[in-house]
């Protein structure tokens, strides 16, 4: 397209426009520069985190956030410096599980300070809401913007591990995380023993395969009931559904976590289950699982 006599141009085609004052060209240059600055800021912030993993499931109600919170806490208790990012924007349960309800974000021109509990650094949209009853009514583009802000504006500092808890499914939130964190160390997939859960959870593994995200392994949550008196585990929902799915999908099986009444109690009271009931079979399962995850991450980085 050529410039015409009146120094006007076709707004639908900027490819060959040479009008210096063209607002479209100016805006495009400014936007490109902003994108570059934002991208470098995100990369700089994430470069101080050795490993980033995502905890996901294709099915709701499998205890994914409970697993994410206890993986993060178990890793911290093993001497790792850990951050926990809750991007379940419509149902942020991490603040409740860790006893952080009512806490608010503070920050300055350099960014936002994560909320800390015993050395664990936590970020959740729950810290930004006026009350626990406030709904989050956002569309996709705004979700992406908020998730990006959590990553690039939160002062995570030097971390061995960042655990990202995403909502069920393979929609906006998990896709945004995978697009923003270009060096994800892998995904942890959570299921329960029932076939109806495993069918949906398999989609999460396919999602990771399509995006070239390594699957660290599958965790079977609610894998039987652990008697609080004798610690015997009864498979009330069936057995080995997670193991079977992992075998069929050619991924690792990280372990099973039995139902323990203390898991519910600790979450409702905002206390760490792996600390509160350290002798229970479920707590031991969490510790065994985090050992496997740490080993896999160490092996991935060459020791």
* Outline: globular
Share of helix, binned: 40-55%
Number of helices: 10
CATH superfamily label: P-loop containing nucleotide triphosphate hydrolases
Give a count of the beta strands, DSSP E runs of length 2 or more.
Answer: 11
* Category from helices, strands and their pairing: alpha/beta
Total domain count = 1
Uncertain residue segments: 1-8, 19-35
Measured on Cα atoms, how large is the radius of gyration?
A: 22 Å
Largest sheet at a glance?
9 strands, mixed
CATH class call: Alpha Beta
How big a fraction of the residues is strand?
A: 15-25%
CATH architecture call: 3-Layer(aba) Sandwich
CATH topology: Rossmann fold
- What's the rounded overall pLDDT mean? 84
Give, in order, the helices and strands: HEHEHEEEEHEHEHEEHEHHH
Distance N to C terminus: 57 Å
Structure description:
There is one protein chain. The protein has 303 residues and is of the alpha/beta class. It has a single domain, classed as P-loop containing nucleotide triphosphate hydrolases (Rossmann fold, 3-Layer(aba) Sandwich), CATH 3.40.50. The chain has 10 helices and 11 strands. It has helices at 23-46, 64-77, 94-97, 140-153, 172-180, 195-210, 241-248, 261-269, 273-276, 281-300; strands at residues 49-56, 82-86, 106-108, 111-113, 115-117, 120-124, 159-165, 186-191, 215-226, 233-234, 253-259. The strands form 2 sheets. Strands 1, 2, 5, 6, 7, 8, 9, 10 and 11 form a 9-stranded mixed sheet that branches. A two-stranded antiparallel sheet has the order 3-4. The longest helix is centred in the N-terminal third of the chain and has 24 residues, at 23-46.
């Amino acid at each position: 397209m050529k410039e015409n006599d009146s120094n006007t141009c076709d707004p639908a085609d900027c490819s060959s426009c040479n009008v210096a004052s063209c607002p479209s060209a100016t805006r495009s240059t400014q936007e490109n520069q902003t994108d570059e600055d934002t991208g470098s800021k995100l990369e700089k912030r994430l470069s101080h985190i050795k490993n980033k993993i995502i905890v996901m499931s294709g099915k709701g109600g499998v205890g994914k956030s409970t697993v994410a919170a206890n993986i993060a806490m178990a890793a911290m208790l093993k001497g790792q410096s850990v951050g926990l990012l809750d991007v379940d924007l419509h149902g942020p349960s991490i603040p409740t599980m860790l006893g952080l309800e009512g806490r608010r974000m503070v920050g300055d021109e350099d960014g936002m300070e994560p909320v800390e509990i015993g050395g664990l650094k936590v970020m959740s949209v729950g810290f930004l809401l006026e009350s626990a009853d406030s709904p989050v009514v956002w569309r996709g583009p705004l979700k992406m913007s908020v998730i990006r802000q959590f990553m690039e504006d939160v002062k995570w500092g030097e971390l061995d591990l960042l655990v990202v808890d995403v909502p069920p499914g393979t929609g906006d939130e998990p896709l945004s995380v995978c697009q923003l964190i270009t060096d994800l160390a892998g995904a942890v997939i959570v299921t329960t023993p029932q076939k109806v859960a495993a069918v949906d959870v398999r989609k999460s593994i396919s999602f990771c395969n399509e995006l070239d995200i390594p699957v660290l392994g599958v965790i079977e949550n609610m894998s039987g009931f652990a008697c609080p008196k004798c610690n015997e585990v009864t498979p009330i929902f069936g057995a080995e559904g997670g193991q079977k799915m992992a075998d069929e999908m050619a991924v690792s099986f990280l372990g099973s976590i039995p139902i323990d009444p203390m898991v519910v109690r600790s979450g409702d009271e905002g206390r760490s289950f792996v600390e509160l009931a350290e002798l229970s079979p479920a707590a031991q399962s969490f510790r065994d699982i985090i050992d496997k995850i740490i080993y896999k991450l160490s092996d991935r980085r060459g020791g």
